Amino acid sequence: MPSRTSRPPFLLVPAAVLLAAAGVAAATTSGTVHEAPSAAVLVGGTAAAVLALYAPSRMRGVAVAVAAAAAGAASGHVLARAGMPRVHDLDHLWGIWAYGRSISAGAWYPLWIPYLGAGMPLFQFYGPLNFLLALPGILGGFAPMGAFKLELLEGHVLSALSFLAAARILGAGRRGSLVAAVAGAFAPWRLAVFDYRGALVEENAFLFLPLAAASAIRTAREARLRHAAFLAASAAGLVLTHLPSLFTLAVSLAPALALEEVTGERPRGRRGRRLGALAAALSAAGLLTAWWWLPAALEGGHTSVGERSAASRYFRYGEHGLAPLAPFERRLWDRYRISLPESYRAGAGSGQEPMPFYGGAVLLIAGLAAPFGSRRSGTVGLSAGALFALVLSTAPAAHALAGAPGFAQLYFPWRFLTPASVLAALALGVGADRLCREAGRWPRALLLPLLATLVVWDAAPYTGAADRIPSYDGVVHWASRAGDPAHFETSMKPVPVAVPPGEEPFRTWDLKLPPTAYSTGIDALYYVYPEWVTPVLYRTYWLARDPSVVARAGVSLMFDERRSEPLRLAARPYAELSAPGRPPDPLGPARVSRRPGLIDARVDAPESGGRLVVLEQGFPGWRASVDGRDAGRPEDDGGFMAVAVPPGSHRVVLTYGIGTPARIAGLLVSALAAPVGLAGLLVRRRRRSARRGPSADNPPSSSRGPSSSRLQWPRREGDDA
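^ that's the sequence the OP posted. Answer follows.
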């Protein structure tokens, strides 16, 4: 038991820190919340956490898990209202709609989604877990908006549970772990990622970031197999959701781990063994997910992501650094705003305010101060990592690192607020747990509820909404109207759109929000995930504004929010057969069909033969066959696909699959890594058993009593707390 008589009164340091943090939050508050949160829900979530802190020991495990889930749900309660918060990344509504439509067509994991752009391999470049997590909403019959909100709400709950589990991995008791869960659930920046930015990939990264941080620290301290396994699994989850979040966490943790090595508690085992375990876990994550990231890396040159970023004056890392105190300024969500480049704010945008970047004064200050509460808290690395991440989000650091590998590809240095929030929440929970153990029963009974309450109070305004998109039904065009331009409901009006039957694919241009039914036969050519189309299509069509050019990409309706009625275009047919000396022969819906990754056409070519042109994006992985005979990779036709057809009636089939060198290599690496890794674990376990051997103190299982045959988990420090 730790000594309780050698410490000064417990309220001295932590009370001063909390008082200062609350004072900073109150003093820097500005603005008003456009859509206020429910006070009853927040009080209920806080009460659930406080009651769980006082739960009897025999019920505490279940109580804190339920309370953590309740805190997560309370933090996202604004999603339960009609409509949805207006967020930055509305593309994801289209992504969920296209995935739901692919499921209706029988493709549960579509390698190719034909309904976005001119068709695109969305799952190959955008972390596939982000769309798979929308399955409950899609299968539950929710429209894309409802499925998107349900996924966000799931993320609120699961990320809170992730913080709870991460604090337990770091050795905190159940009470301290619950404080970490509440701090993570009500981290203002996490709430901004979810309900202000709507950044689906960064939101889902919060499911894995706390576990990855905690297991990395424990692996670096002790090199235990279970911690390394947690690290491998959570890192793999980050690869399949948002690889840049793994990068920001790794950068933030690197100096933190080095500092822990010097100043932390005495590590167990040789340094080489511990670092080797860390490297092995990360390598395992990379190998097991090579099936996804290797093709994405090697075939990314066929997309326009690099060209688009290089040409943009907005996506420049050095332009988006924060003022050093911005994460401590409690600016409320009064309206929809974005991050403004530094040069724009100094010029044409002078006087305009960017989006708030509040990280939470209570969370950040108390988290950074955690090591001062107890010398044995084990929070030095966590707090140092949080501080380092905060520094990396600032403008001076952004200017210095703008040309460094990996940083420019982040686009926004404020993405480091994510690891800062994660590490600060874990430091707060673990530090409070240790402090209360050393201080005694009554301090513990007062401090932990106070911490949880202050964290919720600080973040409460950020559980509301800055703007709202109302519910709608069918296909709706949102046109601007006279009104307050700051808010969607007052500045935009819904205009229903009738889609002609039997003309699939019916391509649209700049339709803001997807249909509510997954069966609606339209495509969104523009403006959805433009980075995942080929450079030739991006330059020719995505940068075009001439309706005659857009029509050549098969667009039938061109929308503009300045007009209520769309511009109806004479669209080029989706598929047509051209032959010398003859006008093109368009193939109607009766002669051509398409599903995710499959285009099936029936053509009648003249004696001179012909050329079938399909307005589907050409990309590595497409193969053509004519009457069942392989015709190789389709020819290029201005970014679309074409197939030479001999005279006569033929069936032409285009299929998209895994048969590229990069995809085959990735699958082989992952397929070999799994059994090799399992064999290595079995060999390691056998060697450990052989080294231990039977002894008088540890006899073989056959000589133990019947009660000893059950698996006995070692009791961890903090299980009673």
